[in-house]
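Researcher: I'm preparing a figure for a lab meeting and need a structural model of a single chain. I don't have an experimental structure, so a prediction will have to do for now. The sequence is pasted below. Please return the structure as tokens so I can convert it later.
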Amino acid sequence: MVRILDTTLREGEQTPGVYFDNHIKLAIADILDEIGIDIIEAGHPVVSKEIFEAVQQLSAHNLKASIGAHARSLKQDIDLALECNVNFLGIFFCVSDSRLNHVFKKDLGSAVDQIAEVIAYAKNKNPDLVIRYTPEDTVRSPFSNVIEASLAAVQAGADIISVADTTGFMIPGTEHNLYDYVSRLKETLAAHNLFPKIAVHCHNDRGYALANAIDGFRAGAEIIDASVLGLGERAGIVDLAQLLVSLKNDFNLGNTWRLEKLPELYGLVSNYSGIPIPVNFPIIGKNAFTHCAGVHTHAAVKNPLHYQSLDPALVGRDMHVSLDHMSGLSSIEWALEKLSIQVDKTMLLRILDQVKSIGRKGRIVDLSELGHIVDWCRKHPV
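Model: Understood. Here is the structure written out token by token.
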């Protein structure tokens, strides 16, 4: 069974301008827990006193989800994370030759020794701690370097190896794809008689984060990282709602996930992050289950599946029809039925004409205004 790690509170706060006060972090975590998220990555404690306190508070909040902290391969980071009483710790260190040489001034052997030492240190401090090691920018680093670091990490006590597509480099169907990468990684580790869980962390720089995550899952990854609205560095990462709906609807997983809580979660995160939900955003966007063109609405009113591949009830939503310049008679009939209003054919055509006229001004008529239009048409017969 795949496990979901939500990193809205850690990766999400790396979105420029996004910061959540601790009471909002708690509210977000509560809804994530209600949905059934397995791991909530609460933050990187060394970054600030406020983040340290937030991670500590979430760890003490008695959620069903595991609470995780983020840490560099440094003992000071480990100590702070352990002070927060987390039960999940993500440790990262790159193994790219160019970054090791030009940024850290280390060779691979020294880096691997540091990774193993820090992981063993954390495991010795808390044997029950679940540790994830991430070779940062995994997929663009030499595979032999990734394997050397991963073997040392697992032997030192790491439970999970995370494949990080840090720059959104991977593209399904090309030679650089996550399905082949995860498959090769698992096979190579198994050949050394090591079987850590594999996680995937996919950035969306080129728009393939969700597709790459699904590729990783199909290859056997047991943990997938995501965030609300796909928040994160640059173009962000995998969007949580899209991931959960795909896994549940298309791969028949997660029957206990309470997806009807997603709109509430997204409203909360959008409000306090200052990042609006795009109207055309899949699953959660205002227009995701709204039909506009007359041909579409005529068919959708009879059977929504004619123009929907998902039942909006899955995420606690309903189908809607937009009333504007594209509307047809079926749209007006649908809306009037919602208002329990009956009119004859002549009146129906007058109402449609008024709606189209308003729509040509760039406005959408909501149900409340439609009621006023009906009253006006009745009081002002032709």
